[in-house]
Write a structure and sequence with these properties.
By secondary structure, the chain is α/β, with parallel strands linked by helices. Helix content is 31%, strand content 17%. The protein is built from 21 helices and 23 strands. The strands form 7 sheets. The chain has a 6-stranded mixed β-sheet with strand order 17-19-18-23-16-20. It is globular, with a radius of gyration of 24 Å.
């Protein structure tokens, strides 16, 4: 979101999923689309059938890579070098859209001067992609009448994650592939309501609709809408702080890595975890465990007893998707109704009811009667949701921005102007991964998902059929590396990083390149995130899940 917002003024997927079918060229980078977003992959398969050129950049030969016209394996963490080299080739060969650049963008000259250093030959050495392939990819993408970029966490989960996204934004602007159907820069969200959670202010620096917390006008708007006044019975600030405590704070909040650091140093006393499982999903699990153990109060609200919930002082049983009313906003900005089918079991309650009671006990009474009433308030305070109501969400829902009741919703963004006015080119230099391999840790590890399980397995590993399909973790290793280490298919190995170690079975496969290994992160028994590096992007604070150095040791005997 930070990268796209800086370039375009909006951090959301620019186009709609259905539009992919009519793209002439689809550039997929950092996305194992068939495993993580199979319905999106279906549209890509249909585009391929129509004759679209499919380009995949991925260190693994995934299923989506197997249908690509060109599949390249970039060295881990070299995406900026690769994209900049593409853009160097595009400018050198005059494949860029000069009209679009002059009429709709700014910052091009400084960007162009910087790109001069990223020659195809030089970047071939950095990326591991041959120069001819870089030029061929650049030509295919630039010359498509409607070229689309699709990316996911293989782009964002790096110390250079925001730079990676800005580079993709540069590429789309350079070729004029924005503001039209079947083009754009299209991030695929990691979970079904990530977009909606962000839209509703689930970020440390904004209120709903990405309205900044450090804007006095915005704060006054929400103070008025919420009749905001903290009860003095609930909060007794020092006299020096009393004035600020009576209004909404202008301070930007903490990201997850900053929260965990705060728990460790005592500046954060309590943590409320809602529908999240950091003991499996966050990097350097040993550090996460110590941080959570430091909390004076840890509250977890979830539908199953996760490893994180097992550490909590208080567990609040929430309701699953089939047990509550509300909305989800999906990856293409589409707001969809969720309807309660069954009652929650036992003492479980809908999330909004729990949050309402906690807020009232904390000194700010909430008195909503239904999710419908909450949705009406969302429309009043969130301009992009201004025309959205439950009545209008019957059927296929609506895509924001939808500012009024007469507005039909927006299929693709930036048609005549960018949200920020002019699109902004950024000067981006290549920054290598935080960690490197050496004689002790000689393999690169990257992590991701499988088609069977979802995120930390909270739900899917409670499904007998899905767990039977894939009941344990694994690590993929190239045949030549396995031979060098004298490893056999299915053998147990110890994988160690500078932070921890796990024991896991190997899968020998040429879908992974030499000196690179892959692990899914779903499995608590062979926990990939015991190994991963907590170093994070300086802007978005997202950790570098996709690159760390490990060593692999053959076990003397098969064991777990």
């Amino acid at each position: 979101m930070a990268g796209l917002a800086a370039a375009f003024g909006s951090g959301a997927m620019t186009n709609s999923v259905a539009e992919l079918e009519d793209s002439d060229c689809i550039f997929i980078i950092g996305s194992n689309t068939t495993s993580s977003h199979p319905l999106v992959a279906e549209k890509i398969f249909k585009a391929k059938k129509r004759g679209a050129a499919i380009i995949v950049a991925d260190p693994r030969r995934t299923q989506i890579a197997s249908i690509a016209d060109i599949h390249v394996r970039q060295n881990l963490g070299t995406d900026v070098a690769f994209i900049n080299a593409m853009m160097h080739a595009i400018i050198k060969n005059s494949w860029h859209d000069t009209g679009f650049i002059s009429q709709r963008t700014e910052g091009f000259e400084a960007f162009k001067e910087n790109i001069n250093a990223f020659t195809v030959d030089k970047m071939a050495d950095v990326t591991g992609i041959c120069a001819d392939d870089i030029v061929k990819i650049a030509q295919l993408y630039a010359n498509g009448k409607a070229s689309s970029i699709v990316y996911c966490m293989g782009i964002t989960q790096h110390v250079s994650g925001v730079d990676n996204v800005k580079s993709l934004a540069n590429l789309a602007m350079l070729t004029g592939n924005l503001g039209r159907e079947s083009t754009g820069v299209n991030p695929l969200r990691g979970q079904n309501n990530v977009q909606g959670a962000c839209d509703m202010g689930g970020l440390p620096n904004v209120y709903p609709g990405y309205q900044p917390v450090n804007s006095e006008d915005v704060r006054k708007k929400f103070e008025t809408a919420w009749s905001f006044e903290i009860s003095k019975d609930a909060v007794e600030p020092d006299s020096s702080e009393e004035k600020s405590s009576m209004g909404l704070s202008a301070d930007v909040g903490l990201t997850i890595p900053e929260m965990l650091k705060g728990l460790g140093d005592g500046s954060v006393k309590a943590l409320f975890v809602l529908g999240e499982n950091p003991m499996v999903s966050d990097p350097d699990t040993n550090h996460v465990r110590k941080a959570l153990q430091s909390a004076e109060l840890l509250v977890v609200q979830d539908i199953f007893m996760t490893p994180t919930a097992e550490m909590a002082h208080v567990v609040l049983p929430g309701a699953c998707f089939a047990e509550k009313d509300g909305t989800f906003t999906n990856t293409e900005r589409r707001v969809l109704r969720v309807r309660k089918a069954i009652d929650p079991p036992g003492e479980a309650r809908q999330d909004w009811q729990i949050i309402q009671d906690l807020s009232s006990l904390a000194g700010y009474p909430m008195n909503y009667e239904s999710p419908d009433e909450i949705m009406n308030e969302i429309a009043k305070v969130t301009p992009s949701y201004g025309g959205i109501s439950y009545e209008r969400l019957e059927g296929d829902g609506l895509q924001w921005p939808c500012p009024s009741l007469e507005h039909p919703g927006t299929g693709f963004l930036h048609k005549e102007r960018f949200t920020r006015g002019m699109g902004l080119f950024h000067v981006i230099d290549y920054i290598p991964p935080d960690e490197t391999v050496d004689d002790e840790y000689s393999f690169w590890l990257t992590t991701g998902r499988t088609y069977v399980h979802y995120h930390t397995g909270t739900m899917t590993r409670n499904s007998p059929s899905l767990n039977a399909e894939m009941s344990e973790g694994f690590i993929e290793i190239n045949p030549s590396d396995a031979e060098e280490l004298n490893l056999a298919q299915g053998q147990w190995v110890k994988v160690a990083s500078r932070r921890g170690e796990v024991i896991v079975k190997i899968i020998i496969t040429d879908t992974i390149g030499k000196k690179v290994v892959f692990m899914p992160f779903h499995f608590i028994e062979s926990q990939a995130n015991l190994l991963t590096n907590p170093a994070f992007d300086p802007t978005a604070k997202i950790p570098e899940f996709k690159v760390c150095a490990v060593r692999i040791e053959k076990m003397v005997k098969a064991q777990h």
